[in-house]
Amino acid sequence: MKWNAYLISAAIASMTLAACSEDDPVNPDNNKPDTETPDTETPTEETVEGDVSGVWEANSVIKVSGHIVVPEGESLTIQEGVQVIFDDAGVGANHAPIEFTVDGNLYCEGTAENPIRLTVAEEDRTEANTFAGLWGGIVASNTCAEMLIDHTIIEYTGGQVIEGSPAATNGIYTAGDDAYPQITTNNINGKYVITNSIIRNGWSDGIYLMGGQAIIANNTFAANGYDGAEAVNVKAGCQADVANNIMFSPNTNGLKLSSSGQSENRGQAKIQAYNNTIINAGWRRDGEKGGCIYVEKNALANVFNNLIVNCKFRAMTPSFDIPNDPEEGYADASVIDYNYYASGSQKSDITFEEESGVAYAWAGYNYEHENYNQGVVDANSVIATETDSKDPQFVNFDINEVALTSYTYDSAWDFHVNAGSPVLTGAYSGSDAFATPLFGTSGLNVNGKNYTSPAVQAQFGAFGAN
């Protein structure tokens, strides 16, 4: 996660928020806009730093003036409607971005009508600060046993890790080299449920999994990564179901799935990624790497029934000719297929003539890329051409209108499809063993409640017809 020393301006609008019962599988057919916190009496305000635990009560305002830590063995519950405001001045003489470290357990229990918001002061939520990295993000350490992020908005993160940053002191990230993802996990035995949430406006990755069992479902990602990074980035020591998410304009990929760091103690990364909608990925990258889905270094990844719209390249599997090598190669038991690639007619305003020269999504999908495992990856996928856009017929999103490098999310968009859409037929049924969600039956038990992954839908993308 290398970083540059300059910022660019952008706007991000309100995002979609999907609802589900805490004990039921995530509902893939909700696409509700942000809601304002209901009118209440004057909210309770509190300023915190250092160790935090217990309960932050519903609709309260928590002002964070310094690094905060949920201590090992303790828990913090954040109830619906809580506004957590991080001071963008940072900590100390070098203004280290404020970090939210979780050594214990964290439970963010928002609702569709009254989400939690982890943000900065209202006057700092500006176009110019889209990628400013005003605070450090959530860092769940190797002692964090459980974390729930439900109906929660996380924004304006990605501060640079510098000398004095807790993540540098604890050896999680490197000072001067890394920027904070919005959510980091480390415990290979941890259980993490991230659902129905909005993860936007971050310099680095939206979610960076370095360990644990995870359900990542029904979230909306937008403007993740300034000069690199992905919406969801998975490493060795993880088992994750990633389903029913909208990923709009990640800098590099919607999904980067890698077993980097695999060892005797840190097992092979295993990921089921299905029924996601990925839009405008890869065009903002400084240089050319990825463009929607990138599977590398022996990750066992089954990636299917995803809807890819106006992304720069198809799914890539570098070193696919080196089988089952955790240092470099490709886990040849993976199934990366039965995806749907749609392309508008827009031309990108950023091209690299000395490399691919790709300026249109349809051109990238059909480019002879060295990382395309032809005849294996996407052998049965639907792929747009210059003369056949494979328009998915969204209810409200014109695939020919939004600029390829845009990352401004419009709350009026609706990624359901019209009746008769081609994405409603021809998708994979999910009947074979490879397609079974990891946590679709047994689920993950977090804070005494069982959360299960969504069932595979025989459609391309996160949403069906209205």
From TrEMBL:
Residues 36-49 have a biased composition (Acidic residues). The keyword Transmembrane helix does not apply. SUPFAM superfamilies: Pectin lyase-like. Residues 1-18 form the signal peptide. The keyword Signal applies. InterPro entries: Pectin_lyase_fold/virulence (IPR011050). Keywords: Signal. Residues 22-49 are annotated as: Disordered. It comes from the Bacteria. PROSITE patterns: PROKAR_LIPOPROTEIN. This is Right-handed parallel beta-helix repeat-containing protein.
